[in-house]
Design a protein that fits this description.
DNA-binding, Arc Repressor Mutant, subunit A, three-stranded antiparallel beta sheet, 113 residues, homodimer, alpha+beta, 3 strands
Amino acid sequence: MEPDTFFKLIGDQTRLRCLVLLVAKGELCVCELVDAIRESQPKISRHLALLRDGGVVDARRQGQWIFYRLSDSLPDWARAALISAEQGAKASSPYAGDAKRFRRLAEPSDLVA
Amino acid sequence: MEPDTFFKLIGDQTRLRCLVLLVAKGELCVCELVDAIRESQPKISRHLALLRDGGVVDARRQGQWIFYRLSDSLPDWARAALISAEQGAKASSPYAGDAKRFRRLAEPSDLVA
DNA sequence: TGAATATATTCGCTTATCCATATATACAGT
DNA sequence: ACTGTATATATGGATAAGCGAATATATTCA
């Protein structure tokens, strides 16, 4: 994971909105992100695909849903940067509104590591 | 300072190379960055201007040199993210080479806060 | 099997980003 | 004033990034 590649991925508002929610809420399915962020499903999916291809998030299917979470193999420095980003996001829009709007729409099973 | 704007600024290799050196070495003049990073002076200047306009770095003139440093008004979360970036940069190129190649070419006076 | 739900991908377009080159500005020393 | 050094900016062109709309795929349930 190259630092500039990582930060370029983080430096898009839609992707950062997804990541901030993943940091704060844990594993989420696409429809929960769409619901909280209020952007179109294809837009969210496209940005999640970039994060997935870049190794920032992992995805797993569970029934009809696909759950995303911060990648297990994310380096410590990258995870720390995301936590800082989430801190900064608390005070600014649209991130704060996303977190407030968030609601569970599907329960991930804990059965998968 | 909006998180996505900040991370977009960080997500360019040239700018991140400058920032990693500023985190590690403190206040630096442009010619030291050009010397360590080995990119053209206009290229470095242009990226520093973006960082300056974005409030990430402060600049002060001292004689014929202009010294840059992390902005005094950088929020804690942004400063923490930069420190994480510098951690990540230690293990990867071209950042490690920049730091190794770095040498002082001008001494900033400590007289200015 | 067929319909409904969830998610992913492709396409054409627009805009933003980055670059190299050339040039401008500011200061220092003679 | 003139020269050299340090730094900044403007210009035009190439490439990349992001978007909406349409469509494709996968799963569930009846």
